[in-house]
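Deliverable D5.2: sample structural annotation.
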Amino acid sequence: MNYLQRLLALPAWLGARIPESTVLLVARLAIASVFWRSVQTKITGWQLFGQSFQFFHLSGSTFMLFQYEYHLPLLSPTVAAYAGTFAEFFFSLMLAFGLFTRFAALGLIGVTAVIEFVYPDAWPTHILWFALLLLLLRQGAGSFSLDRILGWAR
């Protein structure tokens, strides 16, 4: 093998040494953090380590966003605000812990689709989210997860 072929084979050789579970853990934490940070801007109330956990206690600005900016068809702004906040809160936690990972990924694919509907010009960001969520939907949580501990994952 010549020098160029060896050089081009190096990334594949390195990539093959990264355990799949590590890749899936990083993917889960990366995409969970996106939606967790988003939900933290929507809720107020009881906090632990600087994070709000009262998913049912939405801020006034959240209701205003859903009423005046998001304009979702078929849902009242109040229902949409609670449904969106609930989804972001629980699905991001489920991904972080690797619990019902495929279900959570599918749910956040739906959330991403709604966000894309509201902000179509942000598709370069949304497609990155979609790619990580598709990976998790296809592969599951991996070894470092509650799904694995509970025997629900391969």
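Annotation notes: DSSP finds seven helices and two strands in the chain. Residues 71 and 136 are 29 Å apart (CA to CA).
The annotation will be released with the project's public dataset once the embargo ends.
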